[in-house]
Design a protein that fits this description.
The chain is an alpha/beta fold. Helix content is 29%, strand content 14%. It has a single domain (3-90, 138-188), classed as Rossmann fold. The chain has 7 helices and 6 strands, in the order ββαβαβαααββαα. It has a 6-stranded parallel sheet with strand order 2-1-3-4-5-6, with helices on both faces. Helix 2 links the parallel strand 3 (60-65) and strand 4.
């Protein structure tokens, strides 16, 4: 039996995939584990990999939306997967849009510096924002083949900042909710790599 794992965005709501789930009975949508204080994204993904490994059967396909795509990219490397599906996200930190990059000066003081920002209302959101802003793509993740599905109306990560493999016309940032048919087709066209480790 194959495994399909899709990670949610920063808010952790796995209901993001409610309209995709009926097409993939093997779908696993894990909840986030608690991050350590000022834990880099790469380290978080490695710890997360150990909690997911027992749930995974071969072959396995991994993906994620928004922040979940960034974690999935690093998680794919930690699990020894050769490929990863990305939805409404960025492949590298260099693709983060200017409004995100403008916040980088706050990261020197750690995740606590983001607690006063109105859009980051919980400790997890503060950490996730900090981890995004301080993310350095690991060598392992750089070797992972990625496929990116992106909406042309995405305001969080505007289309001009990324290089998608497929563009959803009229699609915003939460494609699994608004354009599930495009997400289902995107997943269905992808292959299931085997776990190496």
């Amino acid at each position: 039996m194959k495994s399909l794992i899709l990670l949610p965005g920063m808010n952790g709501k796995t209901s993001l995939y409610a309209r995709v789930r009926p097409h993939f009975p093997e779908l696993i949508t894990p909840e986030w584990i608690e991050p350590e204080v000022n834990e880099p994204l790469v380290d978080y993904a490695r710890r997360f990999a150990e909690t997911l490994r027992p749930q995974i059967t071969e072959p396995c396909m991994l993906g994620g939306t928004s922040f979940g795509g960034m974690v999935a990219h690093e998680l794919a490397a930690a699990l020894g997967l050769g490929s990863c599906l990305l939805i409404s996200t960025v492949r590298t930190p260099a693709e983060l849009p200017p409004d995100w990059q403008a916040l980088r000066h706050l990261t020197v003081a750690g995740e606590e510096a983001l607690w006063g920002q109105p859009r980051f209302k919980t400790r997890f959101l503060c950490w996730a924002a900090w981890a995004t802003l301080t993310w350095e793509l690991s060598d392992g993740a750089a070797a992972v083949e990625t496929r990116l599905l992106h909406g042309d109306l995405d305001r969080t990560f505007p289309l001009e900042c990324v290089q998608p493999d497929q563009v959803v016309v009229g699609g915003g940032h939460v494609l699994p909710m608004t354009h599930p048919e495009a997400v289902v087709a995107f997943i269905s066209q992808s292959r299931f790599p085997s776990l190496e480790a």
